[in-house]
Amino acid sequence: MQHTLTITTSNEATVVERLLQVTRYRGYKLAGLELKPLTDRAGMRITLQVQSDKPIALLTSQLVKLYDVQQLELASAAVAALRA
Amino acid sequence: MNGAELVLKVLQQQGVDTIFGYPGGAIMPIYDAIYHSTVKHYLCRHEQGGAFSAIGYARSSGKVGVCLATSGPGATNLITSLADALLDSVPLVAITGQVSQAVMGSDAFQEIDVLGLSLSVTKHSFMVRNVNELASILQQAFTLARSGRPGPVLVDIPKDVQLAPVAEPEWITPPSQRVSTSLANTAAARQLISAASKPMAYIGGGVHMADALTHLQAFLAESVMPSVTTLKGMGSVARDNVHYLGMLGMHGTQAANLAVQQCDLLVCLGARFDDRVTGNLQKFAPDAKVIHLDIDPAEINKVRFADCALLGDMKQILPAITTPTQCDAWLAHCQQLKQQHGWRYDHPGEKIYAPLLLKQLSERMPDNSVVCCDVGQHQMWVAQHMRFNSPRNHLSSGGLGTMGFGLPAAIGAKLARPQDTVLAVSGDGSFMMNVQELGTIKRFRLPVKIVLIDNQRLGMVKQWQQLFFNERYSETDLSDNPDFVALAAAFAIPGHTITRKDEVAGALEAMFTWPGPYLLHVRIDETENVWPLVPPGAANQDMMTETN
User: Which sequence ranges form a coiled-coil region, renumbered to this chain (chain A) (predicted)?
Assistant: First the structure.
């Protein structure tokens, strides 16, 4: 099953590799990646498309813990997890 | 002031008075600042040893451990320790020197991408690019290491940042991160507990890390249910709690495993359904509903579905779910299991039986002693046969299972708690993994008591070779071990070898009454194995024992 995650992050140099590390390690296949700097503040909007038979919550719960992740939205599921 | 001096200022501001490390080219400015600092630096003999000492310091005291290393090989030597701290949720700040920014990315001498290397073994890794950000990043590192689910944080500081001039910042104490706690599901949890006829508390390391041990005792006393602990949860339940059944899992007690398999409600407190706990996951506690309390949302439903999840501060949640149970028949059944499957120490023969030795050690050691284990058979024997009154008194590499953990962890524990007796219980395989730290014990005259259980084998691997690999003992023979007593003597540490049961009591007495560090070398029979054992793929009720 394919999922699209829209992730708002800080603009740190390690953000992308960390997201990709967690995605790979937790057993999700990368199917697409788009990255845009945010113009209104220092940050990035990263869109990840991932495939897996595993529940997507097992990935989003790990990604949202990352220090540089500010917000994570799961497209079409009306689920948004805001960093505490 | 320069960046290096600011590092020491931040450490002091964070209340750090003890650090562990090893100098080198890219971290020389910080070592130059240490020269005049009141922060006490303990020179270890390998960066991994230094980091494990910082972990031992943190785990035995509840404070943040701090270790230092230079760039390149110094930093890569930290990786195993960072991974250990990540898997066991230990608050650790590792500071590494890095080559100057002018040459970064050029494969300069002792340059390696430690930032990239460390990402997957830390909660977060920082690189300080500008000296004006140094204090703030270090403060964030400490806050992050100790907040929520604790863990390791690495801060990589290029040499030019260490040397750059900087004004002392205005110290602003960052607000401690509040734990977000939801009490929304507590009524549902109480309902599950009061409806259960066979409830069981399954206690992990998260309870003591949440500083909630007194809340746990109250919960167990008022709700009245039997309990089991993980390796990291040992010491959480008061030793006189009659309903405590011991450790569960692969080498857990039979009573704990059988009862968990039979329970109808599992109240998981700060644990994570590790595979060494569950055995065959599909067959684990098959009739149980699950209440899961944790501070880390990612642990909920990760391995086992939770019928009721409670997230946040255990100190708030435990009182809110305390409710009386009606399970007298179940309590009696668990007592029966406990009596039926008690440990036996009437092992025949004159040779030393490690479980009995460790029981004797446990009974002889002063109250509040800290026991630091290595990894392997002796580690499981310690968990089975020694008793602890706090998880801070039992330091064992749980998640990563790192051989070489015990000796340096004991050094850190002794420095954190000089008033308490500290023991390193090791095996002959593990001991050699960080044996260089005997040099640290010698240098600082640390009265660490080392009990080296020697079967001249990599015992746990050999046990599996015997049971599951048709007795093909591939590369597990260590019968060419060094003379351990002579090795200790080379570091001015006295020692003694024992081989017979009747020598144990006297040898323990000699070790404990000797004022300094001491090595007790215990030769045991290579054929002894750890029982019970849940074989791979089996359910926890299908334990192999010595007799089946």
Answer: none
Range B219-234 average pLDDT: 97
How far is the alpha carbon of A61 from chain B, nearest alpha carbon, in Å? 5
Residues of B catalogued as catalytic: 47, 109-110, 159, 460
Options 3.40.50.970, 3.40.640.10, 3.30.450.40, 3.30.390.10; CATH of B3-163: 3.40.50.970
CATH fold of the domain at B186-340: Rossmann fold (3.40.50)
Nearest chain B residue to A84 by CA distance is B180
Check if B306 contacts A (Cβ < 8 Å): no
CA distance A76 to chain B (A): 21
Q: Do B119 and A18 touch (CB under 8 A)?
A: yes
Interface check B303 vs A, CB under 8 A:
no
Subunit contact B296:A65, Cβ cutoff 8 A:
yes
Contacts of B127 in chain A (CB under 8 A): 13-14
pTM, entire model:
0.97
Pairing of strands A2-9, A44-51: antiparallel
CATH architecture of B354-523: 3-Layer(aba) Sandwich (3.40)
CATH architecture of A2-82: 2-Layer Sandwich (3.30)
Contact at 8 Å (CB) between B398 and B13?
A: no
Residue boundaries of the structural domains of chain A = 2-82
CB pairs under 8 A between A and B: 32
Is residue B203 within a helix (H) or strand (E), and if so which, with residue range?
A: strand B199-203
pLDDT, tens digit, 9 for 90 and up, residues B534-548: 999 999 999 999 876
Residue B91's nearest CA partner among B392, B297, B430, B374 is B392
User: Chain B contacts of A21, Cβ < 8 Å?
Assistant: 119-120
User: Highest-confidence range of A33-47, A48-62, B171-185, by mean pLDDT?
Assistant: A48-62
In angstroms, the CA B145 to CA B155 distance is 11
Neighbouring residues of B149: CB distance < 8 A, sequence distance ≥ 6 = B89, B206, B209, B295, B296
- B338 forms beta bridges with none
Tens digits of per-residue pLDDT, B372-399?
Answer: 999 999 999 999 999 999 999 999 999 9
Touching check for B120 and chain A: CB below 8 Å?
yes
Three-class secondary structure assignment of B221-254:
HHHCCCEEECCCCCCCCCCCCCCEEEECCCCCCH
Closest CB to A67 among B123, B127, B298: B123
